[in-house]
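Quick one:
INPUT:
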């Protein structure tokens, strides 16, 4: 059946992504939106838009009746569910089928059988797919989980049967961790999915997370489109993906692909889907789950194959056969995806909400049409950004905090990494905190470049967390030199005029240096070189000679947020903000705040009084905006260091707040059910 209008039962970047392919194919699109998304980008891009409810997803994007009403109202012939929300909801797919509307996804049987992790493992084993050792059925309680862990041997994974996105998952390293891990996984799964069933399986040590993209039609054809490696994760949520994996050889790729196809055939699969595997250091692989939808990380597969997966899903739903055979599936170059989240990595990756005041992704931007045609173009690296946000957009506490997916492609893996580092340095987001500095630190890490990856990459490589203000010591000297150049450029403009050329050393600075030599600098010190500057970054002092500053070449002018230039021949792209007398610079995951002064002023800096920080040690503050779901202590209770105090739900995740030290609760300032702002007081201690 021809499809001339598609309703997209989703929001954000995936809705925009589907609209892009549909528009290229000449298909009209309908967006649906909640009250919070009334002015969202996907609403403005679609040909039509229908309001479906309140901000909470349970009152909008998860309301099957509201979406069916929107389908009827607009006359849409088909529905694309995107990912998340109703994308793997068999009831939704059934309701569309009864209404005579095409579901751009797999059949109900596949959704139901693969949506249950316990049932899917049984089907996989029967289809000849390698599975992880463990208990095949849901566990009754924490005691049974403990007994199974004793039999299987720790570490074990406690995983929600209906889970996904890292929710309802805990790793028990020892038997002592099993009971609390089981309770946490069950509670989180019940809250997120309405299904608290949990099963236990062996946790594979030094694991890699590698998945196979499959696509099947209604004519009996099923292909695998190579693999993606998704090993770099935080709290079981993917952060960086790449295709193909640098670890998988051709033999293993073929074996994994054939098993993925066998599983798809076992459930009469149609449309795009992903079979996820855990792989050990010897390339033994074990089935984890099958996602019966388009994956967040599908762009990297599109980049290495030149195939538009959304277009293929639409064609399959319309009854068309796949346009190629397994032998014809391309494998071209290498691609990476970095998930840009609204979160603050310097504060333990706490979610960030609010309005995006400035938004400027790196350029050039490649569309899906460009990706499809790139095999006919040159082998130059390119950048792709899939996003649902632009300037003025809102990051809401009601939805996932992902802002965008930054994707690069290049002929080689190293070149794709270099392209990603450059793109991250050129990405501007203002108004909410974001994880771009952390992503840059990941891609700058030598272990990522060498391909030395496991699902514990972040825990092992950043055991103390991440702080951009102390990260990247090797880059600080470069940033200090650039700060001195920026200061000199600003002063040159102010002294002579906005269009003045950059001077080797302005008369202002020469005079300042001279006065410093005769007055404030100790007579035993060597007089500073005319034009020299001193740069402070809060961690130390950098004496910058004019020759170092003169080695910079750039056309930057005051007011531009991005400094582009070279230092001794090295190309630099650095984010720049001027605030009062300070320069805030960011590059390759390092962020520093610099103050640039003349040498005679630098000698006085040590005499300046330090601002005393407020004592907040007696307060438990909300580290993020969110819903306070539990207060675990009462007034008068004595608590120990590390004890759980409260639970906050934000961005669809539970966050447990713990006591930093022992004490006594003197006041409970907030109650369960309250919505909290950042730094709202929850508890006070005596």
């Amino acid at each position: 059946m021809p499809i001339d209008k598609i309703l997209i039962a989703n929001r954000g970047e995936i809705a925009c992504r589907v609209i892009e392919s549909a528009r290229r194919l000449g298909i009209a699109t309908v967006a649906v939106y909640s009250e919070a998304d009334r002015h969202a980008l996907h609403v403005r891009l679609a040909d039509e838009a229908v309001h479906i409810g309140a901000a909470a997803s349970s009152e909008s994007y998860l309301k099957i009746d509201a979406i069916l009403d929107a389908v009827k109202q607009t006359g849409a012939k088909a529905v694309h569910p995107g990912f998340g929300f109703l994308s793997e909801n068999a009831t939704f797919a059934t309701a569309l089928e009864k209404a005579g509307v095409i579901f751009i996804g797999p059949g109900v049987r596949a959704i139901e059988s693969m949506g249950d992790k316990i049932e899917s493992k049984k089907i996989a084993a029967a289809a000849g797919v390698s599975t992880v050792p463990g208990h095949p059925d849901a566990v009754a309680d924490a005691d049974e989980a403990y007994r199974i862990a004793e039999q299987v041997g720790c570490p074990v994974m406690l995983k929600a049967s209906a889970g996904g996105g890292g929710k309802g998952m805990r790793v028990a390293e020892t038997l002592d961790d099993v009971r609390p891990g089981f309770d946490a996984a069950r509670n989180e799964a019940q809250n997120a999915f309405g299904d608290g069933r949990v099963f236990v399986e062996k946790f594979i040590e030094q694991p890699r997370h590698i998945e196979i993209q499959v696509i099947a039609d209604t004519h009996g054809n099923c292909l695998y489109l190579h693999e993606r490696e998704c090993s770099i994760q935080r709290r079981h949520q993917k952060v960086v993906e790449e295709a193909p994996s640098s670890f998988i050889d051709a033999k293993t790729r073929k074996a994994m692909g054939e098993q993925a196809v066998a599983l798809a055939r076992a459930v009469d699969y149609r449309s795009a889907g992903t079979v996820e595997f855990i792989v050990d250091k010897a390339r033994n692989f074990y089935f984890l789950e099958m996602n019966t939808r388009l994956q967040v990380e599908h762009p990297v597969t599109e980049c290495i194959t030149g195939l538009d997966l959304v277009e293929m899903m639409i064609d399959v739903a319309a009854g068309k056969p796949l346009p190629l055979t397994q032998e014809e599936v391309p494998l071209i170059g290498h691609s990476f995806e970095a998930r840009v989240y609204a979160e603050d990595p310097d504060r333990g990756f706490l979610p960030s909400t609010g309005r995006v005041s400035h938004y400027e992704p790196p350029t050039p931007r490649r569309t899906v049409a460009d990706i499809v045609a790139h095999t006919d173009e040159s082998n130059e690296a390119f950048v792709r950004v899939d996003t649902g946000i632009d300037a003025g957009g809102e990051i809401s506490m009601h939805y996932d905090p992902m802002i965008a997916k930054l994707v690069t492609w290049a002929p080689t893996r190293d070149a794709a990494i270099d392209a990603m580092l450059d793109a991250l340095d050129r990405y501007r987001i203002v108004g909410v905190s974001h994880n771009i500095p952390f992503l840059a630190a990941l891609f700058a890490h030598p272990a990522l470049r060498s391909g030395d990856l496991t699902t514990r990459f972040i825990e092992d490589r950043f055991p103390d967390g991440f702080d951009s203000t102390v990260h990247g010591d090797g880059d600080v000297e470069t940033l200090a030199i650039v700060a001195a150049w920026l200061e000199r450029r600003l002063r040159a403009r102010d002294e002579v005029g906005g269009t003045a050329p950059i001077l080797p050393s302005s008369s202002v600075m020469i005079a300042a240096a001279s006065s410093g030599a005769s007055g404030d600098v100790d007579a035993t010190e060597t007089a500073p070189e005319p034009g020299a500057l001193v740069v402070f970054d809060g961690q130390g002092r950098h004496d910058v000679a004019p020759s170092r500053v003169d080695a910079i070449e750039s056309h930057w002018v005051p007011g531009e947020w991005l400094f582009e230039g070279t230092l001794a021949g090295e190309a630099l792209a650095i984010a720049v903000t001027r605030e009062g007398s300070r320069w805030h610079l960011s590059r390759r995951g390092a962020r520093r705040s610099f103050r640039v002064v003349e040498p005679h002023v630098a000698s006085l800096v040590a005499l300046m009084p330090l601002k005393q920080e407020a004592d907040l040690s007696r307060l438990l503050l909300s580290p993020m905006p969110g819903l306070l779901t539990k207060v675990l202590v009462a007034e008068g209770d004595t608590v120990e260091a590390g004890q759980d105090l409260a639970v906050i739900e934000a961005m669809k995740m539970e966050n447990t707040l713990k006591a930093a030290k022992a004490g006594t609760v003197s006041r409970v300032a907030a109650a369960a059910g309250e919505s909290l702002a950042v730094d709202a007081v929850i508890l006070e201690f005596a």
